[in-house]
Automatic annotation (TrEMBL):
<protein>
    <submittedName>
        <fullName>ABC transporter substrate-binding protein</fullName>
    </submittedName>
</protein>
<keyword id="KW-0732">Signal</keyword>
<feature type="signal peptide">
    <location>
        <begin position="1"/>
        <end position="20"/>
    </location>
</feature>
<dbReference type="Pfam" id="PF04392">
    <property type="entry name" value="ABC_sub_bind"/>
</dbReference>
<feature type="compositionally biased region" description="Low complexity">
    <location>
        <begin position="23"/>
        <end position="37"/>
    </location>
</feature>
<dbReference type="InterPro" id="IPR007487">
    <property type="entry name" value="ABC_transpt-TYRBP-like"/>
</dbReference>
<dbReference type="InterPro" id="IPR028082">
    <property type="entry name" value="Peripla_BP_I"/>
</dbReference>
<feature type="region of interest" description="Disordered">
    <location>
        <begin position="23"/>
        <end position="53"/>
    </location>
</feature>
């Protein structure tokens, strides 16, 4: 399987080794297998093998979020919504249950062991650690694993596995850096805020450093693993006098965005991030993947994996980003005129929501 780029009309713009350890209803009907009629004393003619859910069967889906926060919740909600749509459109019964790993690998292992033992037809893990754990738990049974929002599937070692595919939200870090300097060409020091435990952050942070090194711009790194540490790290970046802050699609930082966005805004420091969900929680701006579209695509792939099999599916499907999302309330607090972004992309305006 190879990666495939998926182009979508977006409503808003946006790894490590495998880990040890391991709804809603609609009525079923799928395309029947095609086989040749064998007449007496004649040879059988063409046959076609098609994987299908037999009439009356129920498709069982486990949706596993790595943790609870706005980005992953948005994806999970979109997956559920699309599964309901698929059930109604195709006259099939789809039962799903959504779990949260609470950011804890042992909890994810327990969930993976449970859903595999319950013989679900497909597992949809959301975020890198969840995908790695589910792939490991499903290895013996070869239960299809169709992940969502993996920034670097190759580095996460989630490619080349027959029963694993999914969607990637790989970030265009250079473009977000371009946005930063388009808005303020005089930036002298950039804060890089991320978690060392987040595989999603590894490549974008390396890309950001390379970009800044090439421009001769100083940067200050702060890392955190808990909400309290994120708050402390944000305050430290303010004290360090950074002119702007960049955070990629980092789940640890996302979970704390509502607790830090005012710290940056009140200090006049724009926070550029890897997903529109950050911006809806108070960050200044992003350009990336729309997670509702990503969730819909992931659900479609999961249905395809169950009903048609995975032999012809790609290793992963790269979602296409491109729309700039700006929080107008945060921009007002910062005193920023973001009209400069109109020259480089389509701008979507949002306000802060505590979800």
């Amino acid at each position: 399987m190879k990666k495939k780029v998926v182009s979508v009309v977006l409503a808003a713009a946006m790894t490590t080794t495998l880990v040890a350890g391991c709804g809603s209803t609609g009525s079923a009907d799928t395309a029947a297998d095609t086989s040749a009629e064998a007449a007496e004393d004649t040879e059988a003619t063409d046959t076609a093998d098609t994987t299908e859910a037999a009439t009356g069967d129920t498709i069982k889906v486990a949706v596993v979020k790595q943790m609870d926060h706005a980005s992953l919740d948005e994806i999970a909600n979109a997956v559920e919504e699309e599964l309901d749509t698929i059930a109604a459109k195709n006259g099939v019964t789809i039962e799903y249950e959504t779990y949260s790993g609470q950011g804890d690998q042992s909890v994810l292992n327990q969930i993976g062991t449970q859903v595999v033992s319950e013989d679900v037809d497909v597992i949809i893990p959301i975020a890198t650690l969840a995908a790695q754990v589910m792939a490991n738990c499903a290895e013996e049974t070869q239960t299809p694993v169709v992940y969502a929002a993996i920034s670097d599937p190759d580095a996460a070692e989630l490619t080349g596995i027959d029963y694993v595919t999914g969607t990637s939200d790989a970030l265009n870090t250079d473009f977000i850096m371009d946005m930063m300097f388009k808005q303020n060409p005089d930036v002298q020091k950039v804060g890089l805020l991320y978690s060392l435990s987040e595989a999603n952050s590894t490549k974008p942070i390396a890309d950001a450093k390379a970009y800044l090194d090439e421009k001769g711009i100083a940067y200050e790194e702060k890392t955190a693993s808990t909400n309290d540490e994120v708050i402390t790290a944000a305050s430290a970046l303010v004290a360090d006098g950074v002119d702007a802050v960049f955070t990629p699609t980092d789940n640890v930082i996302m979970a704390a965005e509502l607790a830090i966005y005012e710290t940056f805004a009140d200090a006049g420091i724009p926070h550029y991030t890897g997903a529109d969900s950050f911006v809806r929680n108070g960050a200044f701006a992003t350009c990336g993947v729309n997670y509702t579209d990503l969730g819909h695509k992931t659900a479609d792939l999961a249905y395809e994996a169950v009903t048609a099999g995975m032999a012809d599916m790609d290793d992963y499907y790269l979602m296409d980003g491109g729309i700039i999302t700006v929080n107008t309330e945060t921009a007002a607090t910062l005193g920023i005129d973001y009209s400069a972004f109109n020259d480089i992309g389509e701008v979507v305006e949002v306000t802060t929501t505590e979800e």
